Amino acid sequence: MDPLSSVLHKPTAEDDKYSRGVVGFVTGSSEYPGAAILGVTAAMRTGVGMVRYLGPESVGRMLLEVRPEVVLQPGRVQAWVVGSGITGDSQGEQSAHVQSVLGLEGYAVIDAGALDLANFNSIKATAILTPHAGELARLLARLGDARSREEIETKAVESAVLASKLTGQVVLLKGNVTTVADPAGNHWQTPPANPALATAGSGDVLAGVIGALIAGNHTELALGQVSLAQLALAGAMLHARAGAEAAKSGPVVGLDIAESMRKVIGDILD
């Protein structure tokens, strides 16, 4: 049996859209609207029951043209994905949404611009942080441990573990080899990924996949049957498989990775 099958679930006759998981997104902006499309598509292709989106009206309209299943209203959510395609400007509309969501108890994936906005001394969300080395360098400097991007890339495990301990959250440090660390000091690494994943929007897709895994396993998380670190690692592995699948037919862009997730998960659950 594929080890990833334990965090993926086929719908049953007893399921409804809420039991299958609902992911909320605070992603995308007028400058980077595509981040919303990429993350939302990835979450849907990973198998959630519903996606909600909070953001600029212009981005919402664009998103609906591509993904008409999206709900542009607040409501019940089991996991939030925040920050992809958002700048660190604390005065923006999306920044206010980020602060609001992270002030709620529950689960979140904190990506990109939200890493600069989150106050880890006061947020109530239990989160997975998904920085690349440059973003982690900025975060660690803000937390009082300045180190260069190059040092983080060379000492990935040490840097991810430090960030996890300083923030009290699970950290997924993106790279060709992805590193996951939890506040207890545990850490895991993936095998090297297909270089095709090094493309614009790939990280937005990963955040959506992880958000979907959290929402789809909300019951298992509550029962202690799975941890956020396990879901972060599973998300990275699924993302790598989707990238490899997309690369079989030629050059890869971010949306190809998101759309390939459907086949990857279908093969695992077959």
Structure characterization notes:
This protein is of the alpha/beta class and 270 residues long. The chain has a domain at 17-128 and 197-264: UDP-N-acetylmuramoyl-L-alanine:D-glutamate ligase (3-Layer(aba) Sandwich). It contains 11 helices and 8 strands. The protein has helices spanning 34-46, 57-66, 93-102, 113-117, 133-142, 149-154, 156-167, 202-216, 218-222, 228-247, 254-269, and strands at 22-26, 50-53, 79-82, 107-110, 126-129, 170-173, 179-181, 187-189. An 8-stranded mixed beta sheet has the order 2-1-3-4-5-6-7-8, with helices on both faces. Strand 6 (170-173) and strand 7 form a beta hairpin. The radius of gyration is 17 Å and the shape is globular. The N and C termini lie close together (11 Å). The model has no long low-confidence stretch (mean pLDDT 96).
Give the CATH class of the domain at 17-128 and 197-264. Answer: Alpha Beta
The arrangement of helices and strands along the chain is EHEHEHEHEHHHEEEHHHH
Spatially, the strands of the biggest sheet line up as 2-1-3-4-5-6-7-8
Shape: globular
Structural class: alpha/beta
Q: How large is the share of residues in beta strands? A: 5-15%
- CATH topology of the domain at 17-128 and 197-264, by name, is UDP-N-acetylmuramoyl-L-alanine:D-glutamate ligase
Low-confidence stretches: none
Under the CATH scheme, the architecture of the domain at 17-128 and 197-264 is: 3-Layer(aba) Sandwich
> Rg, please?
17 Å
> Count the helices. How many?
11
Q: What composes the largest sheet?
A: 8 strands, mixed
> Mean pLDDT, rounded to whole units?
96
- DSSP E strands, number: 8
CATH-defined superfamily of the domain at 17-128 and 197-264: Ribokinase
Cα end-to-end separation: 11 Å
**Helicity range of the residues?**
40-55%
